[in-house]
């Protein structure tokens, strides 16, 4: 047991960097619990370990008495005088109570407990080394899964990527080498200090841009805000105080090289780079490009923007399952209310109504026929008289050639007047 203990102490001290005194303390506590089963509930039992020699001894403080009534707490005065010549009744005498089977107890019962304590000591070292690295990007290898959590080998230590920090579109396989964002180093978690890793955090994208774009690294270009739905799309707003620097161009890089490297690291997640604007309305317009915003009203008190777009742009502005509107809202820091431009529809309807009434008056046809012609692009007399054939009119009217001929003749006659 002596040689085994010394080898264990040497290994953890050299290979794991754990202080030998911490190991002695851990083993003492483990053996104290284990020894009580063999020695019994001796008074003030303690374990003494010599880390250099590897020896283990157990001691108890017993009270010197004339007649022993509790052998776990008392010892006869005559025996007490063997340990302390001038012992008197009531004195506390420390007596060695090491059992003959202490080696077996240490080997079988205490070793596992000690190793658990040593793992905690390792985690304490982990916390000290990583406590100032929150926000860093580290490289690691996927090792195993613990339920839905991914355990990552960071070299000397292990990190954990919880299910909510995983990217839903990514697959993780043991042996995969990847980069991770250090979201937090938690000291008081239920499992001891832990390095919490993430690939879904928006700041993971921020750090990748800092590594890839030198202008961001030296603060020539700054990232104003980021909105991300991990695995699908990220919007990044950038600006520069130097008017000579194009912040968007700097992030995109020559032939898109810089942003391509970031997209590759993100497993082809779509990344939109947007020019930041101090004016909220202009910022919203930039964030929604190439969609054309017809009108916008910003309420800074409510942090709300109400905007209108054309009917054909409405679905694009909202995006699939509301993603584009949601990301834009996060990016600009305002709630967006996106509406269809009703005014344009009203103007169009008014123009169509005028054309219908004009055809009714001139050609003597019903309003429904006139509306069919207008919706078919034949809403004016000139088009009916010179721009189309009778067969074209009949096609719009559902094949009614007689009516088509009548309309064509009246339109042609009217154009000659």
Automatic annotation (TrEMBL):
Which Pfam families does the UniProt record give? KH_NusA_1st, KH_NusA_2nd, NusA_N
InterPro entries xref list = KH_dom-like_a/b (IPR015946), KH_NusA_2nd (IPR058582), KH_sf_prok-type (IPR009019), NA-bd_OB-fold (IPR012340), NusA_N_sf (IPR036555), S1_domain (IPR003029), TF_NusA (IPR010213), TF_NusA_bacterial (IPR030842)
Keyword list (alphabetical) reads:
Cytoplasm, RNA-binding, Transcription, Transcription antitermination, Transcription regulation, Transcription termination
Locations listed in the record: Cytoplasm
> Is-annotated flag, keyword Transcription?
yes
Q: Does the keyword tRNA processing apply?
A: no
> Where's it mainly located?
cytoplasm
SUPFAM superfamilies referenced in this protein's UniProt entry, alphabetically: Nucleic acid-binding proteins, Prokaryotic type KH domain (KH-domain type II), Transcription factor NusA, N-terminal domain
Tell me where in this chain the S1 motif domain is found: 135-200
Assembly and oligomerization: Monomer. Binds directly to the core enzyme of the DNA-dependent RNA polymerase and to nascent RNA.
HAMAP family xrefs: NusA_B (MF_00945_B)
The UniProt similarity line reads:
Belongs to the NusA family.
**What is known about what this protein does?**
Participates in both transcription termination and antitermination.
Q: Name it.
A: Transcription termination/antitermination protein NusA
Q: Which organism is it from?
A: Prosthecobacter fluviatilis
Tell me the name of the encoding gene.
nusA
